[in-house]
Amino acid sequence: MNEQTFLFVGWLMMHSTTQNVKGTSFIIIFLFLILFISFFTARTILANSPDQYKTITINRGETLWSIANTYKKDTHGFNTNEFINWVVRENGIDNDRLQSNQKIIIPVLKQ
């Protein structure tokens, strides 16, 4: 093996090692980023658990529509339909009929 071949093989090995380090670094950074995002996503979801939301008691004659309009400014950007859909989903309401003295959770944070 002559000197040029030796230098080329040395350069190739060094270049290959540098590429492996870069690839490994990228994978580590990528995994850390995924872990970081997952942590804060889970934290946000837990922070908005039903325990954080206001529970109200239904009065005679109230509807989901009237309740949505009453709490419109406190719902963090929900429109009336989004409010109603959230209440139906979170409270397991099969129809839009509410009963007097029924307790429901609404998407308004407790204070």
UniProtKB/TrEMBL annotation:
CDD domains: LysM. This is LysM peptidoglycan-binding domain-containing protein. The keyword Transcription does not apply. Residues 54-106 form the LysM domain. The keyword Membrane applies. InterPro entries: LysM, LysM_dom_sf. Pfam families: LysM. The chain crosses the membrane at residues 23-46. Keywords: Membrane, Transmembrane, Transmembrane helix.
